[in-house]
Specification:
Blueprint lengths: L1 H17 L1 H15 L9 H20 L7 H23 L1 H4 L1 H6 L5 H18 L4 H7 L10 H25 L3 H14 L15 H7 L4 H12 L8 H32 L1
Length: 270
Amino acid sequence: MMPAILWQTIGSQRRGFQYFHIAWTLAKRELKGRYRGSWLGFFWTFVEPLLLTFIFFFIFVVIFRQDHQNYLIYLLAGMLPFFFLNSTVVKSTVSLSGYASLIRQVYCPREVFVMVGVLSELYHFVFSLVVLTPFYFYYGVLPSWRIIGLIPALLLITLFSYGLGLFCASLNVFVRDTRFFITLLFRMWFYLTPIFYTVERLHNLGPTAIHLYNLNPMVPLLGIFRWALVPGESLPAPHFLGIMTAEIFLATLVGAVFFARNDNTAVKML
């Protein structure tokens, strides 16, 4: 039974990537229509992270005296990847129901519609990294050769987003309030991840608590982003990186298997 499911999943994903050009076309259409008629248009990509950065700066630096020497860069290097994961999964959750009429009319591997959300949000995420530029000047620092660490970090978080998106998109067809659960879960996940606080503040909890805390895959993953973008940050321990990579691949496999197994039934229920 298990080999049959895996072969079905592999075939399903292969067919999906054969239609990658359709996903990219739909993603471009979604990007063009997102800000049509708005005053700021694409610049909204930068407005939200900048406003949140200033709010967190006031709360945690001005009021609570956060002493990280490059705090604003540290904050953005954690906040932007987490927001990418959040927005991608939420968008992917409603991807099948959002394209229901098109799915009924034209045959296309349904994985394509999950890819649309991943691609459009990835485009925004990459360009939103420009927001870091003025803060490098503010602190008088520059990114080093370690910026190449963005490549594996982007690959891992994109894969993670795709796997979670596949699972949630399929589940949402059967449980239509999945999107609300996902929004709530991400809100809790945000506070359980070191985005506006540093991991060093947790060291007084003891080694066992630190090990449990690092089982959250976003902790080592954000550590890679910060190692690449924030001067002075160290790379997470190799065993935490190994566990995180295994968790991401497992989540992607589970999402792909769940999607492939329920594909035909989900289409009938749209």
